[in-house]
Amino acid sequence: MQKEFYIEDYCHVKENEIFVNGKSLFKADAEDFTTFIKSAYKHFKIDHSKFFKMDSLSKLAFIASDVLLIEDPEKNIALVLSNSASSLDTDRKHQAAISDTTNFYPSPAVFVYTLPNICLGEISIRHQLFSENSFFVFENFNADILFHYSKSLLKDKKAEKVLSGWVNFDNGKYDAFLYVVAKKGTFVHSISEINRLYQI
């Protein structure tokens, strides 16, 4: 049984820029998240019509995962993501629709995204994954739990790889840090290394 695993690749999405393994792949002069993420979608020539119906959290997770997985043929990839805001940004929109007595019409298109784990489904559909998945809500980035959970999935052969990390969106502010844990890679999969890469 393999004792040590590795981080194959990692991605940051923040401040209108997308990085993979520390290298900038895309940067936009955008005033808001909507403009930025739409520009990124066009830049990477993604063809996924449902993208424009997604909430902001799902769009963020979708783009961050896509730059890591788009050329990966592996289908047994578990998903272990986390954030601090849950789906609060979408929850507020749904609540506003319920509270508006003059124009009461809760949109099913908004309601469907009132759980943070819906972004896992969007990633799974895009990459045809039928694997284990979990979404945790922490007050802050928690490398310890992500490390142990991902390692457990790999050791127990529940997955060949794990896409793990942090994807947070609230009030227009966003931050994504995703990484792929595998049997081979550039970086040792450890709590200290996860924290180091997150802070880059």
Write structural notes for this entry.
The chain has 200 residues and is an alpha+beta fold. It has a single domain (6-86, 115-199), classed as Peroxisomal Thiolase, Chain A, domain 1 (3-Layer(aba) Sandwich), CATH 3.40.47. The chain has seven helices and eight strands, in the order E-E-E-H-H-E-H-H-H-E-H-E-E-E-H. The protein has helices at residues 33-43, 56-69, 88-99, 108-111, 118-127, 143-155, 191-199; strands at residues 6-14, 17-20, 23-27, 77-83, 133-137, 161-170, 173-182, 187-188. Strands 1, 2, 3, 4, 5, 6, 7 and 8 form an eight-stranded mixed β-sheet that branches. Helix 2 packs parallel to helix 5 (118-127). The mean pLDDT is 91.
What is the fold's blueprint, element by element?
Elements: E1 6-14, E2 17-20, E3 23-27, H1 33-43, H2 56-69, E4 77-83, H3 88-99, H4 108-111, H5 118-127, E5 133-137, H6 143-155, E6 161-170, E7 173-182, E8 187-188, H7 191-199
Parallel strand pairs: 4-5, 4-6
Antiparallel strand pairs: 1-2, 1-7, 1-8, 2-3, 6-7
Helix pairs in contact: 1-2, 2-5
